[in-house]
Amino acid sequence: MITIVRIALLLVGGLTLPLAAGFLLAPARAAARLGLEAVGPVGWSTLRGDFLGIFVVIGGSALYAAVRNRSDVLIVPILMLSVIILGRLVSAVLDNSGPAALPLIAAEVLMLAIVVLGYRTLP
Predict the structure, then answer these.
(1) Which residues have C-beta within 8 Å of that of residue 91, sequence separation ≥ 6?
(2) CA 38 to CA 2: how far, in whole Å?
(3) Does residue 36 sit in helix, strand or coil?
(4) pLDDT tier at 99, thresholds 50, 70, 90
(5) Alpha helices in 26-97 (DSSP H)
């Protein structure tokens, strides 16, 4: 079971770190995929900084946990993904974004499930 969880965590890292690189190197293209657009230099900085940080911490923590066989580093991505999902659910209610955001919510719930499983399974 631990091997399966470690592979799943490697997949989380393998999917999120390229997203981080996309926001760092081609923020307009990465943002457009998520329905975002930067307005001026502060917007570019936010796309690069915030999204790079989110995806690097989630993916890097998942990779580190899988490679080092450590669950303690998964607390932060659990919190981050939980707050992200909460924000999406609030937006679904307030902005009626539910149907459009459903694929993103599903991906984040799946990542959260994998990270929680890693937290509960790894030493």
Answers:
(1) 97, 101
(2) 41
(3) coil
(4) confident
(5) 27-33, 40-46, 52-68, 75-95
- Mean per-residue pLDDT, 61-70: 98
**35: DSSP letter:** T
Residue showing tokens 């926001």: 23
Burial of 95 per CB tally in 10 Å (0-12, 13-18, 19+): exposed
- Dihedral (C-alpha) 20, 67, 72, 23: value to the nearest 10 degrees? 0
State residue 103's pLDDT score.
93
Residue in this structure with the two tokens 């230099």, named with its chain if needed: 41
Measured on CA atoms in the order 27, 32, 36, 39, is the torsion positive or negative? positive
